[in-house]
Amino acid sequence: MGEAWVDKCLTSADRRAVGFVGLALFAFLTLWVVSEWVGSRWVFVLTPLCVELAVPGLRHFFSRRALRRLLDTYPRHAVSVHFVPGRTRVGRQTYLETAGSDRTFLRLAEIPERVRENIRRGGRVWLAGPDPRGRTAVLTRGAPFMTLGRIVIR
Q: 3-state class of 89 per DSSP?
């Protein structure tokens, strides 16, 4: 896992985050236009939908510094993983179990379906970390994807 791939993953994550925030801004602008057209401010009751659309992008931008720090501090190593039965998708979170662990799971947020399929087929992710707080940078091969995960004990 070279620096070129890490940069490609980070660029892809930045692009995806800008897309989510842009979509949220477009949705809010649409709400504003509809409220002016209808003449009612009750349309803004849908504002939480706009916030919900922005959450994945904002999460990435707030965790970007921690991702870079983990990638610069810890070596990247490949880990065999599989989805935890019954916890493949809990809300927005995904739980992966590392090979050879008894109760240690890797919790990831906001995983696109293409990346889930990539992990199912390959059964491997690359980790940088964990740090003392249990955070780890997670990268995939095949589909450029990077996110901040957390090691949890269940």
A: coil
Report the 10 Å Cβ neighbour count for 45: 9
- pTM across the whole model: 0.73
Q: Angle 47-73/3-38 helices, nearest 10 degrees?
A: 170
State how far the Cα of 13 lies from the Cα of 11, in Å rounded to an integer: 5
Residues 6+ apart with CB under 8 A from 5: 139, 141, 144
**Per residue in 23-42, pLDDT tens?**
999 988 988 888 888 888 78
Query: CA nearest 56: which of 88, 87, 92, 83?
Result: 92
Closest CA to 53 of 19, 10, 4, 100: 19
Residue 22: band (very low, low, confident or very high) from pLDDT cuts 50, 70, 90:
very high
Q: Is the backbone of residue 75 left (phi > 0), alpha (psi -120 to 50) or beta?
A: beta
Q: pLDDT tens, 109-120?
A: 878 778 888 888
Angular region, 89: left φ>0, alpha ψ -120 to 50, beta rest:
beta
- The percent of the chain in helix, strand and coil, each rounded to the nearest 5, is 50, 25, 20
